[in-house]
Structure formats: C-alpha cells, structure tokens
Design brief:
single chain; mainly alpha; 0% strand
C-alpha cells in the first residue's frame, strides 16, 4: 500500500494596505485588462459607501452613484492614482447593481 502524506506549506501574503497601494492582478480576460484596477476602486468605494451610510447604494439612484464615483476618486488619489481616469460608466453600473441578488 502507498500512503500519501501532505507536507505543510508556509504561505505568506502582503498586507491589505500594501496590496491596495501596489496590487498584483491575475488577468482573467485579456481583452479587459484595464478593468481590474477600476473594479478594485469600485468595490472599495462601495464598501466605504456602505460603512458611511449603513447600506449599499440603491439601484438606479443617481445620487448614490455620484457618491460612489466621488469615493472612488478619493481612493484613487489616496493610493497613488491606480488609474489615470475613472471609468464613470462602469462605476455607475457597479453602484447601481451593488444590491443585486444573483440566484
């Protein structure tokens, strides 16, 4: 009989703050490689919106989408301009669908 023994492996990761200031992306769609930093900023902005307001942005609410865009711009400047210009259409769609339920 053969017995397989799994040897422990030590894993180490960068802190969240270090990862945010210098992210390493694993491309999943080579046609949309520029979207990864945009989505990172968008999800972080939505998270900050939820912390500030106690809830996620409402669907198709222009005020909430504008607030998410403002927060994304703040985050972008705080962390060394991950993107040159924010994709407002993408971030507005992301904010409008933040409460979406995928079933």
């Amino acid at each position: 009989y053969v017995k397989q023994i799994k040897m422990p492996a030590k894993e180490s990761y960068k802190s969240m703050q270090d990862s945010f200031s210098s992210p390493e992306f694993v491309p999943s769609d080579f046609a949309k490689m520029d979207r990864q930093p945009q989505l990172l900023l968008g999800f972080q902005a939505i998270d900050r919106f939820a912390k500030n307001n106690g809830a996620l942005p409402l669907p198709a609410n222009a005020e909430h989408a504008a607030e998410v865009l403002r927060l994304a711009a703040e985050l972008n400047s705080e962390h060394g301009n991950l993107v040159e210009a924010l994709d407002e259409k993408l971030l507005t769609l992301l904010a409008s669908n933040a409460r979406g339920d995928i079933s």
